[in-house]
Amino acid sequence: MSKDAIRDKIIDAAKCRFSHFGYGKTTMAEVAGDCDMSPGNLYRFFPGKLDIAEAIATTDYEKHLTHMRKLAVTPGRNGPERLRDMLFEELRRTYHKLEKDPRALEMAQVISRERPEFANWMLANERKILVELMDESERRGEFVPSGDRETIAEMIQSATMKFRYPQLWSKLTLPKLERELDGVLKLIIEGLCPLRSQFAAMPQQQHETAA
Amino acid sequence: MSKDAIRDKIIDAAKCRFSHFGYGKTTMAEVAGDCDMSPGNLYRFFPGKLDIAEAIATTDYEKHLTHMRKLAVTPGRNGPERLRDMLFEELRRTYHKLEKDPRALEMAQVISRERPEFANWMLANERKILVELMDESERRGEFVPSGDRETIAEMIQSATMKFRYPQLWSKLTLPKLERELDGVLKLIIEGLCPLRSQFAAMPQQQHETAA
DNA sequence: AGATTGAACGATTTGTTGATTATTCAGAAA
DNA sequence: TTTCTGAATAATCAACAAATCGTTCAATCT
Predict the structure, then answer these.
(1) Helix axes A103-114, A49-71, angle to 10 degrees
(2) Binning pLDDT at 50, 70 and 90, where does residue A147 land?
(3) Cβ–Cβ contacts within 10 Å for residue B44, how many?
(4) Is the pTM above the cut of 0.85?
(5) Is there a contact between B159 and A154 if contact means CB atoms under 8 Å apart?
(6) Which of A25, A40, B10, B65 is 20 to 30 A from A123 (CA-CA)?
(7) What is the DSSP string of B117-174?
(8) Å: A118 CA to C21 C1'
């Protein structure tokens, strides 16, 4: 059996255990047993337990990413609609994943605590899609260019942060979350001011800024 | 000594202990000792330890609230500027408070865990100010009316959630946080679309919505 | 009477011990 | 040689005991 095939077998066994008993309650010995090998042998394929979890999360997330990339260029939908499709898709995916498998939250929390760069990598991927979406949409005159697009993508992520972290949902149901995301998107897309130029060059602020 | 004066003495003693040793490491016996009374006597003035913390937070927050109300009607500044003043003030207050007294975070976390309605009360207060600000600004033609103002206030809070919870700051410095808040506000105020009417009536979405 | 105390009580926290676990690596197997 | 094993190790976790703490209330003081 090829090295990659063994890796996949390990990933499958771990995925099954993790979602059934949780990351913490799954031991390396158990995963090794499921694969008919010794615990020590796992370490020829993964540096450690966390890396198995990361591999699971990565393949899962990459599937999601390609879906998002598709939504970002769906014909027949304009820029704002595509942006909305993406963010709604992300919210729904997270919500349903958690509903189907509540133990996924534990794994997500462990990974983003012990491997913060993983969460950053996910956000960066999404930003890349957002930038492309905005570029494309701007050419069609749907978005107004207003500053660096990478920065705007960051701001969109910042404003929609709540919908990416289940810890912040405080028992809200999916319909309520969707209504809220809907409202935030409306705010972002339409803006509060009718005349953009009027307030475009706002003075920084009246108070001093900390060094 | 009047009942209120004793309450204040207790609050002062507790405030001192909480910010010096933390909420968890402060005992009722110590606070009572500082006030030259027995632990049991504290309960004639407060229902429990958490209520002392809540009283401290309340007076502190009410000072902040009046400041916010002032910023919301400062002459010579338009609607968006006032909105910005408010949200920047809130961010700075939280940041500096935490810098000066890192143990304040513990207290805030305990309160919002054990007394979620307190956090809701703070948000509701702020929303009331935001609604008044928008009402006033709309009369001056600075904001476009677009739906229920209470809802818009909720969405503003949702989009700026990150700046209200230090747990979400991940070591960011105040200047970085300010830059980010700045960007989010720009997004909210100006919006991504130049022509509001063009996308105002967006179809809900293409996928089904969960019941 | 009303105000205050401090011992008593149950809940929570802390400290400790033993078991479990992730990880390593010397050596066996192929 | 290369692949794998499983006992050894060090770190982490779980469970239990002891101590501490928030809270109560019968008794004491004013």
Answers:
(1) 100
(2) confident
(3) 10
(4) yes
(5) no
(6) A25
(7) HHHHHHHHHHHHHHHHHHHHHHHTTSS---S-HHHHHHHHHHHTGGGG-GGGSTT--H
(8) 25
Exposed / middle / buried, residue B175 (Cβ in 10 Å: 0-12, 13-18, 19+): exposed
Q: Do B193 and A142 touch (CB under 8 A)?
A: yes
B192, pLDDT greater than 70: no
Does residue B27 approach strand D to less than 7 Å at its CB? Answer: yes
Restricting to B residues 53-92, those with a Cβ less than 8 Å away from any Cβ of A are 77-81, 83-85, 88-89, 92
Verify if strand D has an atom below 7 Å from the CB of B33. Answer: no
Phi first, then psi: give them for residue A75, nearest 5 degrees.
-70, 155
Say yes or no: A1 contacts chain B, CB-CB below 8 A: no
